[in-house]
Amino acid sequence: MAALVMPELKTVGALVAWARQSLVQAGVSNGVQEAMWLLEHALEVRSHQLVSLMDRLVSPDVWGRVEILVARRVAREPLQYLLGTQEFCGLEFSVSPAVLIPRPETELLIHQVIGRVQSLSEATIVDVGTGSGCVAVTLAARLNGQRIFAIDRSSEALAVAMTNAARHAVSGRIEWLEGDLLAPLRGRLPEGAVDLVVSNPPYISESDWAGLEPEVRVFEPRMALVGGEQGTEFHERLLRESREFLALGGLLVMEIGAGQAPLVRQLAEQIGGYTALRIIEDAAGIERVVIAQRVE
Ligand SMILES: C[S@@+](CC[C@H](N)C(=O)[O-])C[C@H]1O[C@@H](n2cnc3c(N)ncnc32)[C@H](O)[C@@H]1O
Fold first, then answer.
1. 44-74 as b/e, with b when 16 or more CB fall inside 10 Å?
2. What is the pLDDT of residues 160-171, one digit of tens each?
């Protein structure tokens, strides 16, 4: 790849053109638009303002910042880590390399959970593998009265999640626990006290992980992505371990990867204690959410 030479005259317009060319040349598929977003971020202006600033000369401080942002994106660091945020269910979430960037398909989990617990103001909900807190915080913001626990094995992720709860004024609605899956609930809640367990667990198989695009494989936390040899190991553990905590009639709502539904259904049947799995497709027609109801 040819060296990226910064323009002599550093107007906003020249920087936009340089950033655009650098990103496109590096193979960033949405490079033209991303250049605008990076400039808006560096200049701390809103999107509609940038076009009116193209002739403005920028300070060495700003072009230094732009240079660093573009270099990081050229190295394929995800745009969201550079901007520090990602929108999810209409709310803005802070993200850092300690957490998975919330994905649009996970919004389906939220819709499924809200539809089922909205009328149960006394319900206890547990978000397992909370990451950025996007699930727990959105539920707290959209529901009233329900008790919400959020668990993660990563203390760094929990710190980001707590920031997001504060950002959306729901800190007092969520209890944060560090540990392995549902284990931190032991001693805190009696058996059968949970009405709904929701989880977007790590579900990439070891073999699929190697083929992921660099933005994901190199920069997002491996612990948030890889579920084991099959990719369904966390679903299996959640099916087994949730039975202890779920009330009779309680629900386990999990996100799954494309093509995992048959295996997760088979696991649920082997483990027992649940009704037949309900499987819900996302907007792309991919089986994306499974719902198991505890019956024994
Ligand atoms: C796929 S990410 C989901 C993050 C967030 N809920 C979302 O939907 O964007 C999975 C999360 O599970 C956490 N995790 C991985 N192994 C875990 C374990 N054994 N116990 C609890 N959390 C775990 C990771 O740290 C990560 O935050």
1. eeeeeebeebeeeebeeebbebbbebbebbb
2. 999 999 999 999
